[in-house]
């Protein structure tokens, strides 16, 4: 990237590389001096991969401290940002339903959405179904591109977990995947099979 800076602006290069400015200068600095956090970053990556990206910086901080490493959560957050690691499960995606907690039982209201995140500079797309009662992950699928088949596989996995005699509602936004006729047909087929599954789309 340093070679291209003479020809193109830094902002353009950072956008194309999907890299934060702080990450760029950090790597520049590290190329000139030893990385005192090298072993810590390896541990963070190991913990992140062990929990399949479900641990955020606070969970990783707790595990590092349990291993005897004295480090605060702000440092862990900064290192995770530099490594491009983010928790793949973000409860805030469904915060508009937070008021329902305590008023519903499990398997009454599920929600689905697609979230993009970076792992070691690679873009991945997570498609989960989450129970709004307790934030349990019912099913999920991770792909390198936002393809429709990702949603189909996730949906079929979730269908196998629908209990009997449950009035279930599945929330989604207006994403193109959820407007596909095949997606609607799958929901309709399952509804006819169980007579207990409903679909509802929310504007988002």
TrEMBL record:
Top-rank taxon: Bacteria
PROSITE patterns according to UniProt: INTEGRASE
One Pfam family linked to the record: rve
Entries under InterPro entries matching the protein: HTH-like_dom, Integrase_cat-core, RNaseH-like_sf, RNaseH_sf, Transpos_IS3, Transposase_IS3/IS150/IS904
Domain Integrase catalytic: 102-204
Protein's recorded name: IS3 family transposase
């Amino acid at each position: 990237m340093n070679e291209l800076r003479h020809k193109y602006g830094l902002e353009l290069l950072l956008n194309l590389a999907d890299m934060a400015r702080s990450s760029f200068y950090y790597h520049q600095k590290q190329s000139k001096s030893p990385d005192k956090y090298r072993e810590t970053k390896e541990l963070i990556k190991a913990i992140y991969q062990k929990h399949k990206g479900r641990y955020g910086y606070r969970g990783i901080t707790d595990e590092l401290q349990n291993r005897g490493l004295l480090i605060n959560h702000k440092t862990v957050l900064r290192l995770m940002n530099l490594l491009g690691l983010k928790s793949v499960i973000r409860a805030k995606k469904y915060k508009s339903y937070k008021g329902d907690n305590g008023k519903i039982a499990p398997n009454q209201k599920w929600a689905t959405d697609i979230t993009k995140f970076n792992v070691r500079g690679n873009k991945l797309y997570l498609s989960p179904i989450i129970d709004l009662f307790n934030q349990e992950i019912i099913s999920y699928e991770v792909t390198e591109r936002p393809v429709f088949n990702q949603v189909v596989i996730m949906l079929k996995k979730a269908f196998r977990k629908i209990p009997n005699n449950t009035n279930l509602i599945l929330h989604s936004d207006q994403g193109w995947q959820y407007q596909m006729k095949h997606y609607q047909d799958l929901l309709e087929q399952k509804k006819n099979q169980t007579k207990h599954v409903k679909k509802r789309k929310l504007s988002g």
